[in-house]
Structures are given as structure tokens and as C-alpha cells.
Specification:
By secondary structure, the chain is an alpha+beta fold. It is built from 2 helices and 7 strands; from the N terminus they run αββββββαβ. Strands 2-1-5-6-7-4-3 form a 7-stranded antiparallel β-sheet. It is globular and about 30 Å long.
Length: 111
């Protein structure tokens, strides 16, 4: 899928995306691109994304890591997941400046 390749190239270096659950404003969040999805950790002192819930449709906006201009916008579905040890380690590594304190993790998968 062309969108997945574009996201893969853009998100290798980017650590933040805009996520807008349908009917809500976009929120800038740190995220992890892995396995064809954007992983977003929220709650517990971490970032909040109002309206993000299991099964909710959203829009993910990505900016170019080099020019910071709008690169692409994709439709996605959020899925609440229980992170396994590998995902926990990847989220901790992606969060370079602090120990993660999230309470929920969403796999936001392009549709």
C-alpha cells in the first residue's frame, strides 16, 4: 500500500503526529511507528487525546521530518491494546526524555 510506504519513510525520523478522533480537534502527540501502525500511549500523566477510544475512526496527519510541512493525512481506526513486553520496551525507547507513565496504548491503524 502506497500510504504505508509513505508513512514508513516519514515516521522513521518523526516522533510526533497529529491525531484527530472523528468529531474532535487534532492533538499533537508523540508516537511510535511500528508494524504498519501508529502506536499512541495516553493517560497517567502522559499526553491526552480527547475522544480517542477503541474502535473510533480518526485522522492522522504527518508532517515532513525535514521541512515540517504537511506531508499526508490518512484515515485510521484506533484499537485499544494491552502492550506486550516488546511493545513496552519500544515505547520506552521512543520516549527518550522521560519514563513512560501511560495507562492506555492505542494501535492507530491506517485504513
Amino acid at each position: 500500500m502506497e500510504t504505508t510506504r509513505l508513512l514508513d519513510a516519514a515516521l522513521r525520523k518523526a516522533a510526533a503526529v497529529w491525531v484527530a478522533p472523528h468529531g474532535r480537534r487534532a492533538t499533537l502527540v508523540w508516537a511510535l511507528w511500528r508494524d504498519g501502525a501508529v502506536w499512541v500511549a495516553v493517560g497517567g500523566g502522559e499526553q491526552e487525546v480527547p475522544g480517542l477510544a477503541d474502535g473510533i475512526g480518526c485522522t492522522v496527519t504527518v508532517r515532513s521530518p525535514s521541512t515540517h510541512s504537511h506531508l499526508t493525512e490518512v484515515s485510521a481506526i484506533a484499537h485499544l491494546v494491552e502492550p506486550d513486553p516488546d511493545l513496552r520496551a519500544a515505547l520506552a525507547a521512543a520516549r527518550l526524555n522521560a519514563e513512560p507513565r501511560y495507562t492506555q496504548v492505542f494501535r492507530v491503524e491506517p485504513t
